[in-house]
Amino acid sequence: xxxxxxxxxxxxxxxxxxxxxxxxxxxxxxxxxxxxxxxxxxxxxxxxxxxxxxxxxxxxxxxxxxxxxxxxxxxxxxxxxxxxxxxxxxxxxxxxxxxxxxxxxxxxxxxxxxxxxxxxxxxxxxxxxxxxxxxxxxxxxxxxxxxxxxxxxxxxxxxxxxxxxxxxxxxxxxxxxxxxxxxxxxxxxxxxxxxxxxxxxxxxxxxxxxxxxxxxxxxxxxxxxxxxxxxxxxxxxxxxxxxxxxxxxxxxxxxxxxxxxxxxxxxxxxxxxxxxxxxxxxxxxxxxxxxxxxxxxxxxxxxxxxxxxxxxxxxxx
Length: 317
Prior knowledge:
Elements: H1 2-27, E1 30-36, E2 40-46, E3 54-59, H2 63-77, E4 80-87, E5 102-103, E6 114-115, H3 117-124, E7 128-132, H4 133-144, E8 150-156, E9 160-166, E10 169-170, H5 204-208, H6 210-217, H7 229-249, E11 253-257, H8 266-278, E12 289-291, H9 299-315
Helix pairs in contact: 2-3, 4-9, 7-8
């Protein structure tokens, strides 16, 4: 009798849970978000960018297979009234371009010139907001996390990407920011490594990204002893990147995220060296800060859902 009672109670609880979820969906339309990365796609639905009711992670395989899995998951967890995609790139962000919504000249095998927004907009029958993954994270941090009227989100991991937000809007121009490919001034002791970027050699990404560190020293930065020169070089190059963002875009806040930034002491070293480079010259110095992501691992998917919210608002203006 006890077993039967327990089974019945669980069945009632599950039914009530389903009813609550259905009631929640009836109460507010659902937004869909995709944080599209080179190794995984994070998918989520929720009534707002800060309220996720369901999420999952799928591996990034081939475009056809990945987008089919994405479509299937949203069909099961929707319907969604709008979709936001914060994607690895490079991507085409010009709405006037026939290739808007495409991942363009990416080194990711099989993904170059892939239309990601078009097929999903058609399959889910909803408006789509589309931007880079780092612009999405920057938007979320500016709105819900670190804050400020101008912010740069810098991720240091498989690559080095920079997203920029000013006045509540992500920055676009002829393309999107690619500050991870600027050329830093080489450390005076560091000229025996040609760099690891397949396009530019010793650009920022070619010197300080995770793969560059691994290719050069055979280990990740966090696994190298504190006195290893890698810590000095990487902190110095990232400080140049932060100084460049402060000096050229005049952002108030720089958020440093990504796997490499999990290295103990690296954030403090970058912060100290950045402000030393500024030499107390830059206007607005008292308002500038370098911080870790306030939203943690949620920055990317929260930004994707925010892109969905703006797409929905735009479609209903």
